[in-house]
Amino acid sequence: MTTLKTSEQAVPTTTVMSVFLSKYCGSLLGSGATCIRLEKNVTRIARAYGMEAEISIMPRHVHLSVWRSGTDEAVTSIAAVGNSGISFEVNTLLSRLSWEIADGKIGFDEAVERFDSITSAPSAANPFLPLLVSLANASFCRLFGGDAVAMMVVGIATLAGYYLKIWLARRHTDLRLIVLACSFVSAVLGATDMLFAIGDTPSIALATSVLYLVPGVPFLNSFSDMLYRHYLCAFSRFADALVITCCLSLGLCAAMFLMNTGMF
User: Fold this and answer.
1) Other C-beta atoms within 10 Å of 131: how many?
2) What is the pLDDT of residues 105-152, one digit of tens each?
3) I need a surface site. Which of 35, 46, 108, 126 has the fewest CB within 10 A?
4) Distance (Å, whole) CA 237 – CA 215
5) Nearest-angstrom CA–CA distance, 124 and 95
């Protein structure tokens, strides 16, 4: 394996830079970055060291060629796209790293160390995140006309489903199964408003109890990639988002069938 360390203040070779940038691409794309951001960040880093880079972005892999400006000899590396899940924090830190390299604030060795620390650090668990997600989903319920009882039911249903999502994610459960299970649990709890007739808008409570699982970021990223003519990645991300949406719908339908809420 090619080492990424260089001597102090030395300019990395095209081979070292190609390996580094390919890993950078895989991590950035896996954290939920769009293709256009990937291209801009990689080009920014390469030009900081007098090099050019050309990227071929595939749904599961990234092919990257690096050559020194004014020469025709290129080095190509291939990296798998990371499967760490969407992380705005990683996305932001890796983008900031590209600017610090371009502005000359850090050397290449330090950039490699920073990259390793960013990608290897465990995601920080925010104890307030489940509560904030519950409040946000309850607000959606109110936005669609739900009453106070419906908002309370949606908040509880979202809180239970989100804790289940965290628990399953820590056990590396497949994302599709996570969405299916969480939507089922949240919809079952959301149907209590309808079963016990404790509110005036039970159907809104049931419908909005699973909105926190809608894959909004993949849908937006697929649209962004389509605008910049990355059609293969756009279709792949759209297909992934569509599959997740189908899993969400299956969980909701199964809960409605079990609770006999009138759909079937």
Assistant:
1) 14
2) 988 999 999 999 988 877 656 778 899 999 999 999 999 998 999 999
3) 126
4) 10
5) 19
Contact between 19 and 77 (Cβ < 8 Å): yes
* The three-state (H, E, C) secondary structure of the chain, written as one string: CCCCCCCCCCCCCHHHHHHHHHHHHHHHHHCCCCHHHHHHHHHHHHHHCCEEEEEEECCCEEEEEEEECCCCCEEEEEEECCCCCCCHHHHHHHHHHHHHHHCCCCCHHHHHHHHHHHHHCCCCCCCCHHHHHHHHHHHHHHHCCCCHHHHHHHHHHHHHHHHHHHHHHHCCCCHHHHHHHHHHHHHHHHCHHHHCCCCCCHHHHHHHCCHHHCCHHHHHHHHHHHHCCCHHHHHHHHHHHHHHHHHHHHHHHHHHHHHCCCCC
CA nearest to 37, candidates 99, 123, 79, 101: 99
Q: Is the dihedral of CA 127, 118, 215, 245 positive or negative?
A: negative
Strand partners, 51: 68
Q: Which residue has the tokens 């050559």?
A: 67
Q: Which two tokens stand for residue 219?
A: 């849908």
Cα separation of 198 and 221, whole Å?
A: 40
Among 125, 149, 129, CA closest to 203? 149
**Selected residue with higher pLDDT from 3 and 59:** 59
Return the residue matching tokens 């649209």.
223
Contacts (Cβ under 8 Å, ≥6 apart) of 136: 212
- The separation between the first and the last C-alpha atoms of the chain, rounded to the nearest angstrom, is 58
